[in-house]
Design brief:
This protein is mainly alpha-helical and 454 residues long. It has a single domain, classed as Alpha/alpha barrel (Glycosyltransferase), CATH 1.50.10.10. The strands form four sheets. It has a three-stranded antiparallel sheet, covered by helices on one side. A two-stranded antiparallel sheet has the order 1-2. A hairpin with a 5-residue loop joins strand 3 and strand 4.
Length: 454
C-alpha cells in the first residue's frame, strides 16, 4: 500500500484547518517567548509538553524565531513580527559566522532569510525594514557555509557536516539555501591568494555529490540499492577524496532509510530545482551543464518522492525509519494509518511536515498531468497533520505538531509512563515546518504568489 490519495482535498478545502492551526499557534509562541531563558541554550524538543534543550549543535534557534515570523506573515499580527525581529537581532548573529556546523540554511534562512523575503514582497512595515543588514548576514552565512569544503576524487566536492571533513549529510540539501541566497545577492567566497569561489559552483557540486552518494536509484550499486531510498551520511577518505561507504547518525542503519533524512533530501532537492531554473546557463560550472544538473535533480526528486509515497502508511505520516526492527511486529502497517501510540516504533510527524512541502513543490514543478500524484499526496499529508492526533490543541502543551522524534538511536526522546515508545511530543523543526507548510498552502488557496525562499 502507500499514501491513500483523496482527490477531494484542495488548498481551499484546507483553509478552515489552517485557520485553526494559526489560532493554536500564537499562544504557544508567546508562552515559549515569555519563559525561555536563552542562557540555557536553544529549545529543541518537548518533554512532558514543555520545551527543553539538548546540546549537540545549536541548529534550532532559527526555527524558534522563524516560527514567529511565519505566524506574523500568515495572520498580520505585528506582535509576532516583533518577537521574530528582536530574536534575530539579539541572538542570531553568532549563527551567521558559525564555522562549525552545516546548518546555516536552517538557522539563517528561517530568520534573516524570511525577513529579507518579506521585505522584497512588501509585507513588512517600512519603519522596521533593515534590508542591508539582513542581506549582509545572508552573504556572510552563505560564504561561511561554502567554506566547509571537501574535494572528491571525481573533481567535485561537498559541504561537510559537523562530524568532520569525511562526512556528507543528506540534511545539507536544505541548508544549500544559504549558498543560493548569497549567490543571488552577488556574493562570492574569497579564498587563498584572493581566489574568488563561486557559491553557485559549490552549491551545484554539493548537489551532484549528494545525489551520487546519498541517493539510491535501483541500479545495483549494492545489495540494498532500492530506488529512492537515501543514506543519512556518506563517508569519504579525506586523503584521496574517494567514497568509502554509506552510514547513518540518526537512522537505524546505513542500509535502511531514516525518514526525516529522506524528507530533508526530497524538500531540499525540489527547492533547489526551483532555484536553479532561475539561473542562466553560463553561470554553471564547466563540468556540469545547466541541463545536466536540472535533469539530475529532477530524477533524484522524483525517485525520493515515489519512495516516500510507497513506504509511508496511508495517512502520510511515516515511522521514523523504514527498516526499524520493531516494524515487523506491526503487521501490515503500510496498509493502514500510522499509529503514534503503538508499542514498537515511533512515528515522525516532523518528517511528514518536511516531506509534504517537497511533494507539493514537486507536483507544481511537474505540472497538472505528471505532478498530480505528488501534489495530492502533499495535500493528503497536510490534511493529516492539520488534524487530530497531530495538531496540538492542548494549551498547556508548548508544541504545535505532536509525535515528532529527534534521535531514536541515542534515546534522547521522552517516553511517558505507560508508553513504550516516544509519542505526544514536539520539536522546534517540526513546529516550524508545519507552520511553513500551512503558509505555503494558505498562499496558494488565496491566489497569492508561490512561497519561495529566493
Amino acid at each position: 500500500m502507500a499514501i491513500q490519495l483523496n482527490q477531494e482535498i484542495s488548498p481551499q478545502s484546507l483553509v478552515p484547518k489552517i485557520r485553526r492551526l494559526w489560532k493554536l499557534s500564537g499562544p504557544k509562541i508567546q508562552r515559549l517567548q515569555s519563559r525561555w531563558e536563552t542562557t540555557k541554550g536553544t529549545p529543541v524538543f518537548t518533554e512532558r509538553g514543555v520545551y527543553a534543550t539538548r546540546g549537540w549543535t545549536e541548529w534550532t534557534q532559527g526555527f524558534q524565531f522563524g516560527s514567529a515570523l511565519l505566524h506574523y506573515e500568515a495572520t498580520g499580527q505585528e506582535k509576532f513580527l516583533l518577537i521574530g525581529l528582536q530574536g534575530t537581532r539579539d541572538h542570531m548573529a553568532t549563527h551567521v559566522s558559525h564555522t562549525g556546523v552545516h546548518d546555516h540554511g536552517f538557522n539563517n534562512i528561517s530568520t534573516y532569510g524570511n525577513l529579507w523575503r518579506m521585505a522584497c514582497e512588501g509585507t513588512l512595515p517600512l519603519e522596521l525594514i533593515n534590508r542591508e543588514a539582513w542581506e549582509l548576514a545572508l552573504k556572510v552565512s552563505g560564504a561561511v557555509q561554502a567554506a566547509r569544503w571537501t574535494a572528491t576524487a571525481e573533481g567535485g566536492g561537498y559541504i561537510y557536516s559537523f562530524n568532520g571533513p569525511h562526512s556528507l549529510f543528506i540534511d545539507t540539501l536544505r541548508s544549500l539555501r544559504s549558498l543560493a541566497l548569497a549567490h543571488q545577492l552577488g556574493h562570492v567566497l574569497m579564498s587563498e591568494c584572493d581566489r574568488r569561489v563561486s557559491l553557485l559552483d559549490r552549491l551545484v557540486m554539493h548537489l551532484e555529490a549528494t545525489v551520487r552518494y546519498n541517493v539510491f536509484f535501483g541500479t545495483g550499486r549494492d545489495t540494498y540499492d532500492v530506488r529512492g531510498r537515501v543514506a543519512h551520511e556518506a563517508i569519504f577518505n579525506t586523503n584521496d577524496g574517494r567514497f568509502r561507504c554509506p552510514n547513518s547518525q540518526q537512522g537505524y542503519s546505513s542500509l535502511t532509510t531514516w525518514t526525516r533524512g529522506l524528507a530533508w533530501g526530497l524538500c531540499g532537492l525540489v527547492e533547489q530545482w526551483e532555484f536553479l531554473i532561475s539561473q542562466p546557463a553560463h553561470l554553471f560550472p564547466e563540468r556540469l551543464s545547466r541541463a545536466e544538473v536540472l535533469e539530475t535533480v529532477r530524477e533524484a526528486a522524483v525517485a525520493t518522492a515515489e519512495f516516500y509515497i510507497s513506504e509511508t502508511p496511508t495517512c502520510g505520516v511515516p515511522y521514523w525509519d523504514t527498516g526499524a526492527p520493531g516494524l515487523v511486529r506491526l503487521g501490515d502497517y503500510l496498509n493502514r494509518a500510522a499509529d503514534p501510540f503503538n508499542e514498537h516504533e515511533p512515528v515522525d510527524s516532523s518528517a511528514a511536515a518536511i516531506a509534504a512541502q517537497g511533494l507539493l513543490r514537486l507536483g507544481r514543478l511537474l505540472g497538472k498531468s505528471r505532478g498530480k500524484t505528488f501534489w495530492q499526496a502533499g495535500l493528503k499529508v497536510a490534511d493529516t497533520l492539520f488534524s487530530d492526533p497531530y495538531l496540538s490543541s492542548d494549551e498547556d502543551h508548548e508544541g504545535l505538531l505532536l509525535h515528532s522524534v529527534y534521535h531514536r538511536p541515542n534515546g534522547w526522546d521522552y517516553t511517558a509512563p505507560g508508553q513504550k515508545v516516544p509519542n505526544n511530543e514536539s520539536s522546534m523543526w517540526g513546529d516550524y515546518h508545519l507552520r511553513e507548510l500551512a503558509l505555503l498552502i494558505q498562499r496558494e488557496a488565496q491566489g497569492q504568489p508561490w512561497l519561495r525562499f529566493f
